Automatic annotation (TrEMBL):
Its EC number is 2.4.1.1. It is an enzyme of class 2 (transferase). It comes from Fusibacter paucivorans. Allosteric enzyme that catalyzes the rate-limiting step in glycogen catabolism, the phosphorolytic cleavage of glycogen to produce glucose-1-phosphate, and plays a central role in maintaining cellular and organismal glucose homeostasis. Phosphorylase is an important allosteric enzyme in carbohydrate metabolism. Enzymes from different sources differ in their regulatory mechanisms and in their natural substrates. However, all known phosphorylases share catalytic and structural properties. This is Alpha-1,4 glucan phosphorylase. It catalyses: [(1->4)-alpha-D-glucosyl](n) + phosphate = [(1->4)-alpha-D-glucosyl](n-1) + alpha-D-glucose 1-phosphate. CDD domains: GT35_Glycogen_Phosphorylase. The keyword ATP-binding does not apply. It holds the Pfam family Phosphorylase.
């Protein structure tokens, strides 16, 4: 947009006055931030209104991305950049004696997600807007986002994330768009002429109120909507009769029992607890979202039969899978369609992404629970199941009872949401090539056999503008000065950087930028953790949720091994290294929490040992989230992507590190395989078991962790250190970890992969000694990272799954 510094200052001073009733020099950083947010919102508002009215009047097909999680982080800097007014605002503020960084700093992260799945959803919204796809998000406005992690005495301790305490300047509450969601009760049937009608009676009603956040596209006038639903008591009043009788607390009980639905984000990212409240959450936003799509759709006036021509609904994992029976319910019970018509529309509208093969993360609901809470929805699921089984027998000629049981939606008293999602959609995609192959050939093979045309791959992508423009301004400037700014809209252009592989002065510049980022992070680490690290050391990072399959313990066991070597020989000639860890554990995941304690324990021993002359440091940075990642990733030399092959569906941190010039230390898992293909084998460090080997071991049962332990003295030494009193903790502290590795036979092959990991780390130390060789690898990673922009991923979803067209918008601000 066009804006001069003078206009900005005038607007801003007026805004400060109206929103704070104070002189500008008396305002706090928060007030300045809020006032700026209000202004930016007004600029965006014009574009937003234009976008919505164009979609409606020109009757364009729209895609609704349903996700239980949207991990959007901060908005201000992005919005300023995307409007093209960042520099103007920065200069304008400076002339008012305000540092823009102080304002950006006070914004709190919107952390309504656990990890990769939620961040991906946020990135997809950004990409849809930025490549002009008419697409919106639908989710839950949790009052508490993912918990704040603090480390106390080396342990993770959780604190609530009250991200709304200072209000959220970006959202609009839309009372007029509220809808009712119905739970419990029972279904009555009656004949209405020829038609059997179903009616839910004696239900509990909850008001779902939407809060809309504008999602701005990059310099293209498009503003899509993220609609998050909040639960309120139906009239938002308490039980007056009860209150007047003096029952003050119980008068508010109902209100609380309703509001609790959107109180908190479940902090598990790979373990399904099967809690009733979570089921309520899932139906809550799905029902509200689908109802509101109908309301919007009806304003287009094209007739209900053409619904699938104008609406695509994507379900992000199975959490929104109730969208399938909910859509059926509305088409059957409210629009009075036949089952066949309704089913056709439903399957044409819905598409589904699978994000994990981990059995413990696959959602299953007890049938009795579902029937109690959602009687009509359960009837519909049972009918879907009945017709599906009929097809299996009559159309696909499957009669073997074991084969049939493997495919049922309802089995053993449980409702399998992945099966419902596959049966009720026209597209099922994995999130990296390898993951999709595993789905097709192993985990979901029985479904692939009957629906081969439904399965497809959509490799994940990241918000490249965030990870470059916002997180790494130094690198962004170097890239822009060298190959121009085209990469902002078309990140494959980054490949042009490959021309500079042998340009020593360019490699020097690149090294210098990385070094500066490392200096900044070293300062942050000193300020926050009191640990001094050498910015000339190799910065080796593992930042992601803590999970046994991600193998943070493989990493720390290797650190323990390096430390042993240094203790034996303090003059050992190795480049200094800083191992940085960050990530949250699910609060109820005991072993993962012990891994955090282990990292911190090992850190406290190593960091306080003067005898090793600062050659090794271990840092655990608490409260990993989008903001911390944005500080860390630009400073990384090595990116640890070391999951047990087959377990990490894709990974997206791997792409962010790569884009910022880190060299990946990787197993051939998830998108690491594609990173290798982009960057070439000489620019990635590989190690470890391959997928087939992992599956072989699981199948033949020949894996023997004790055998490896007994035959590898170096490895045995570090495992023994977990339990022999070597570490300054009670002797039994780390027994659970040691048990998982030995007694329970090392499900994730830590022992098997240890030696190959150690050798890979040795190669890294060797290569790092040669500054130019290292910088060349780093450059190759940056140059080849463009393929992993979410812009391209969304392009592929739009053409091959959703069949939605770009809508270019013209508007002058
Ligand atoms: C499952 C459950 C089970 C019920 C309780 C709460 C909960 C929350 C999330 C999940 C889904 C876990 C799947 C997941 O997060 N997968 C990750 O998705 C990323 C984006 O596709 C991908 O990069 C990661 O490799 C994958 O682990």
């Amino acid at each position: 947009m066009k804006l001069t510094i003078a206009e900005f200052k005038q607007d801003y001073i007026a805004q400060i006055k109206s929103s704070t009733a104070r002189q500008i020099n008396e305002t706090t950083a928060l007030e300045r931030y809020t006032a700026l947010g209000e202004m930016v919102k007004e600029y965006i508002g014009n574009l937003w209104a234009n976008t919505n009215s164009t979609y409606r009047t020109e009757q364009v097909k729209q895609i609704y991305y349903f996700s239980m999680e949207f991990l959007t982080g901060k908005f201000m800097e992005n919005n300023l950049n995307y409007l093209g007014i960042y520099e103007i605002v920065k200069d304008g503020l400076r002339s008012l004696d305000i540092d823009i960084d102080d304002i950006l700093e006070v914004e709190v992260d919107q952390g309504l997600g656990n990890g990769g799945l939620g961040r991906l959803a946020a990135g997809f919204l950004d990409a849809m807007s930025s490549i002009s796809i008419p697409g919106h998000g639908c989710g839950i406005r949790y009052k508490n986002g993912l918990f704040e992690q603090r480390i106390i005495d080396g342990y993770q301790v959780e604190f609530p994330d009250r991200w709304l305490v200072n209000n959220n300047v970006w959202e609009y509450k839309r009372n007029n768009k509220a809808v009712i969601v119905k739970y419990n009760g029972h279904v009555e049937t009656h004949m209405d002429g020829e038609r059997l009608k179903f009616e839910l009676v004696n239900y509990d009603a909850v008001r779902a109120v939407p809060y809309d956040t504008p999602i701005l596209g990059f310099e293209n006038n498009t503003v899509n909507t993220l609609r998050l639903w909040s639960a309120e008591e139906i009239d938002d009043i308490f039980d007056f009769e009860n209150f007047s009788k003096g029952n003050y607390l119980s008068a508010f009980e109902k209100k609380h029992s309703v509001e609790i639905i959107t109180q908190i984000l479940y902090p598990n990212d790979a373990y399904d607890e099967g809690k009733l409240l979570r089921l309520k959450q899932e139906y809550f936003f799905v029902s509200a979202g689908i109802q509101s799509i109908f309301n919007t759709y009806k304003k287009m006036n094209v007739g209900i039969n053409r619904f699938a021509e104008f609406v695509a609904i994507h379900i992000n994992d199975t959490h929104p899978a109730l969208a399938i029976p909910e859509l059926m319910r509305i088409l059957l019970d409210e629009e009075e369609m036949t089952w066949e018509e309704a089913w056709k529309i439903t399957t044409q509208c819905i598409s589904y992404t699978n994000h994990t093969i981990m059995a413990e993360a696959l959602e299953k609901w007890p049938l009795y629970m579902l029937r109690d809470l959602l009687p009509r929805i359960t009837m519909i699921i049972e009918e879907i199941e009945r017709r599906f089984t009929e097809d299996l027998i009559n159309v696909y000629h499957i009669t073997d009872p074991n084969h049939l049981s493997a495919m049922h939606i309802i089995y053993d008293g449980m409702v399998r949401m992945a099966h419902l999602s596959i049966i009720g959609s026209h597209s099922i995609n994995g999130v990296a090539k390898l993951h999709t192959e595993i789905l097709k050939n192993k985990e979901l093979k029985v479904f692939y056999d009957i629906y081969p045309e439904r399965f497809n791959n959509k490799t994940n992508g990241i918000m490249h503008r965030h990870w470059l423009l916002n997180a790494n301004p130094g690198l962004t400037k170097l890239i822009g000065d060298t190959i121009g700014d085209g990469f902002k809209k078309n990140p494959r252009v980054l490949r042009d950087l490959l021309k500079y592989r042998d340009d020593k002065s360019f490699l020097d510049d690149l090294f210098e930028i990385k070094h500066q980022n490392k200096e900044n992070l070293a300062k942050y680490i000193k300020d926050k953790q009191g640990i001094v690290v050498d910015p000339y050391a190799i910065f080796d990072m593992q930042a992601k949720r803590i999970h046994e399959y991600k193998r943070q313990h493989l990493n720390i066991l290797h650190v323990m091994h390096l430390y042993r070597q240094l203790k034996e020989n303090p003059n050992l000639d190795i480049p200094p290294r800083v191992f940085v860890f960050a990530g949250k554990s699910a609060p109820s995941y005991y072993v993962a929490k012990q891994i955090i304690k282990l990292i911190n324990t090992v850190g406290s021993v190593i960091n306080n040992d003067k005898s090793i002359k600062d050659k090794l440091k271990v840092v655990f940075l608490p409260n990993y989230g989008v903001s911390l990642a944005s500080h860390m990733i630009p400073a990384a030399d090595v990116s640890e992507q070391i999951s047990t092959a087959s377990k990490e569906a894709s990974g997206t941190g791997n792409m962010k590190f790569m884009m910022n010039g880190a060299v990946t230390l990787a197993t051939l898992d998830g998108a690491n395989v594609e990173i290798m293909n982009e960057v070439g084998e000489s620019n990635i460090i590989l190690f470890g078991l391959k997928v087939e080997e992992v599956y072989d071991y699981y199948q033949n049962g020949h894996y023997n962790a004790y055998e490896i332990y007994n035959n590898s003295p170096d490895l045995k030494a570090v495992i023994d250190e977990l339990v022999n009193g070597y570490l300054p903790v009670p002797k039994d502290e780390f027994i659970p970890i040691a048990d998982r590795l030995l007694r329970f036979n090392d499900e994730f092959f830590i022992l098997k992969d240890f030696e190959s990991y150690r050798l890979a780390q040795e190669r890294i130390a060797e290569i790092y000694r040669d500054k130019y060789q290292w910088s060349k690898m780093s450059l190759a990673n940056i140059a080849c990272s463009g393929a992993f922009s979410a812009d391209y991923t969304i392009e592929r979803y739009a053409t091959s799954i959703w069949n939605v067209q770009k809508k270019l918008l013209d508007f002058k601000l």
